[in-house]
Amino acid sequence: MHAARPVQDWLDDPATPPVLQQKLVLAQRMRRFAVTELGLPDNASYRRYADLQRRAAVYNVVAAPELSLKLHNWCFPVAGCVGYRGYFDEAEAKAFAAALSSNMDVAVYPVPAYSTLGWMNWAGGDPLLNTFIGYPEGELARLLFHELAHQVVYASGDTVFNESFATAVERIGGARWLAQADEPARQAYAEFDGRRQAFRAHALATRQRLQAVYDDVSLDDDTKRQRKAAAMDDFRRRYQELKQGWGGYKGYDAWVAQASNATFGAQAAYDQWVPAFDVLFEREGRDFARFYDAVRALAAMGADDRQAALQALAPAASPLPTH
What we know:
Layout: E1 5-6, H1 7-12, H2 18-38, E2 48-50, E3 58-65, E4 74-76, E5 80-82, E6 85-87, H3 90-100, E7 104-111, E8 128-129, H4 137-149, H5 159-179, H6 183-215, H7 221-243, H8 253-257, H9 261-271, H10 274-283, H11 288-299, H12 303-313
Parallel strand pairs: 2-8
Antiparallel strand pairs: 1-2, 3-6, 3-7, 4-5
Helix pairs in contact: 2-4, 4-5, 5-9, 5-10, 6-7, 6-9, 10-11, 10-12
C-alpha cells in the first residue's frame, strides 16, 4: 500500500510503459463495471497501482495430515481462523513449511492478490499490483470481482464459505464482462479457461479418489499410504497426457510438482460451495442486492447451520472432510 500511487499518476507519467497504461485503463473500466453491473463496493480499492518488485503479493503455506484432505487452520486477530498462513517473504514461508513437513503434507504457493476486506479503504484501499495486472482480460476481471466480493460478505473462520462465495461472484461477473468484451478477448479467455477447467476436473477426480481411500475404514494406514501413492502417480501421469493438447503451456507444472493433500484441500476451498451460491443467485432472481443480502444471512448463521443450508441449496455438493 505504501508503494501504491493513483492510477492517474501512472497514466500521466511518461516513464510508464504503454502496455501497462492500457492495462490500467482497462482495470478502471472493470472497476466501474463492478459497481454499476455487479453491485460491488464503490470505494478506494483498486484505484491505485503498485509494483512490488516480486512475483507474488504473498506466499501461502498450506498443510494437511498425511491421510486427510482437511487443511490445518491458523487463527489470527480480526481475520479469524483460515486454512493457510501467509508470508510476504518467500524464504520465510518455505522455512516455516519445512518445519511442518515431518508429519504433514505441506505446500507453499504464490498468491497474486489478497483482500483486506475493506478495512484498509481509509488508507487508500487494496491496490492493483504488478503480480496480476498482466493477466488476460477475462482473468483480470474475474480476479478484481473476486477480491471485491470479499468486501461484501466475510464469515470469520469459514475459509470455504468465503472463497466459494467470491468464486461464484467472479464467475458470474466474469461472464457478464466477457459478454460485452471484444472477440479477441473472449477467444483468449476461452483458451485460458478451457485449460483451467480441464485441469480442475482432473484434480477433482483425484481428490475424490483420495477421499474415498481416507474414508475407507476397512483399510489400515499402510494400505492407505500405498493407495495414496498410486493415486498421486496416476495424477501426474494423466497430467502429462492432458498437457499434450496445450501447445507447450506449463502453467500448472509447479502445482503438480508439489501436489499433496494440502494442495488438493486448498483447491477444494475455492470450489466447494460454488454450486450452492449459483442456485442462490438464481433463487434471488439474479438480483445482486438480494443475492448479497441472502449470503449475509448465511454468514450470520452458526457454522453447522450454514453448512446445512448450503447443502440444501446444492444437495450434490459434498462437504469437505472433517477428519
